[in-house]
Amino acid sequence: MESILQFFFTYKEAIFIIALSVFLGIEVISNVPSVLHTPLMSGANAISGVIIIGGIILVGHADASHLSLELGLGVLAVIFGTLNVVGGFVVTDRMLEMFKKKKK
Amino acid sequence: MNEIIGTLNGVPFTLGETLLELSYLLAALMFVFGLKLLSHPETARRGNLWAAAGMLLGMLTTLLLHKTDSGNAIPMANVWIILAAIGVGSVVGWVVALKIKMTAMPQLVSLYNATGGAASMLVALLEFPNADMSNKGSVLVTLLGMIIGAVAFSGSMVAYGKLDGKVGDIRSGLMKYVNMLLLIVTFGLAAWMLFSNQTPANLNWAIYLLMVLSLLYGVLFVMPIGGADMPVVISLLNSFTGIAAAMAGFIYHNQAMILGGILVGAAGTILTVLMCRAMNRSLLNVIIGAFGGGTSSTATEQGEMKEMTLSDAAILMSYSQSVVIVPGYGLAVAQAQHACHELDTLLSNKGVNVRYAIHPVAGRMPGHMNVLLAEADVPYGQLVEMDAINPDMPNTDVVVVIGANDVVNPAAITDPGSPIAGMPIIRAFESKNIIVMKRGRGKGYAGIENELFFGEKTHLLFGNAKDTLQKLVMEIKSL
Q: What are the chain A neighbours of B51 within 8 Å (beta carbons)?
């Protein structure tokens, strides 16, 4: 119990953000027409690549003077994160471009 | 950037730190704004670019302004390594995204989701040795981040394999219990690690074991799910990746990661729930997999399926006033979207009112049919959602069902014992004539007979949807 309260106090700002972003996420998405389900999912998928920031920090802290498992896996994390971000946004853009063309 | 511009609770902070936090705030706002724009057809493309710009901003400022524990900027050598890794990821991601065929889109979205999950898993795995074991909360988020990331990774890889036709469905009654057991063991191990009061170094074996267990669970969790449930699973895994990223945000006290991750998690969950509702099933029901293997309560005499000739079909359609096309997964498999559009233009030019009826879970990805038909240049004013088209069904002369099955099965309404009972369907059976294009006499994904195919008003055209459509187009042209 004590550790839960301790956790809450340490992370109180973050917990506020979580509580509010859940509602924000729901609010922003509701009423989306089914035409956009795929691009929306794909775009959201790209946003979840925000883990790339974690990857950058991780490798930023790593000891780069010699090869280590930590460095190797960290680099892998950055590559994976970038794939998610870049691939996700480009694919979404391609899908939406197709929709746009039809509107003329 | 290193000049101290003030103090907070006695701790001095620099200009660089302040700018970094400011950029995270800006990035988070851009994510929200982008997602908002993404949910309207006119602004969707701009929304995507906003979100991408937010991401670029966050990445750049982290690289330039982030301080290591010793208070120094990221060393140059590390910056180069990071840039190289980003370079590799960008080029591969970009090229694949541009080269991929539109019909392979569900696979690709799944694949990119897997990479996001893998990144979260690795970050949590590598941060575990630095965890302060006395702070249970931060250990908990690290462990959760790794578990969820790993499940999203291996689960999405299996989903990718399935969509690409490389992996089949494996279902058995036993699997349910194996999965349950595995889940208990995984969380049991995590809980033990949390309360064991050992140093992270002593728990090194356990974190790797935890990773293996989570990866295994992801595989077994997606393995039995297939067919019509794929859109739900993909959307669910997508929200997992978001939550995993948010957990990692906790580790770094990084608000942009927390907000971005949770935003995606919440949005993904809502999308999942919407789709479950469209099938009138609960999420638990989808995960445990009630489809297939169930007893078929409708073993009644169904009568004969009546075939028709192409020229009859051509005449029937050409002299109709209104035609509704119901596309399904079979259309995607046969890549028949272009042939289908050719048919609809031809009929439209003859003055026939042609529309498409889109069931929310048709295909293998949320909105799959919309993307597919958009690729073939079908104007999206012609795509009508299920609820909007159903009232028009009795006045429709011909419904053409192309590679769809369960979404037009009247058993959902008439037979309370059917596995799909209560699922909203496109009420094709109310129209005046029904033409069904089918590959064979097989059943749909749910493994149940479709009485629509045996109905008085129904005629079938067997064969590959693309071939059939092309021949039909020729017939209509020669009329």
A: 43, 46-47, 89
